[in-house]
Amino acid sequence: xxxxxxxxxxxxxxxxxxxxxxxxxxxxxxxxxxxxxxxxxxxxxxxxxxxxxxxxxxxxxxxxxxxxxxxxxxxxxxxxxxxxxxxxxxxxxxxxxxxxxxxxxxxxxxxxxxxxxxxxx
Length: 121
Known about the structure:
3 helices, 39% strand
């Protein structure tokens, strides 16, 4: 199974991806077919819904507001869970504008089964 930091880096890369087809492919590489994503009272289930969720966030935060996401470097694993913080920064700067906590449940192959996002962290 891949390292927690590698999974965290691949996870945030999806939200930064500008190419629609690459983003779709990376989502399929990360999440299982029935993968779920929860943030606040919002529940997203399945790859098509995940693609829509990631695209909407990308358009708002990366494309329109010219920001980027990065993993905060604190990823760790306990059995089938990986937890890490992510940060949103200006595309051309290092000031942290927002910070969230990601709690991922992964299956035996390392695919995300459930993704719980706590924002703000």
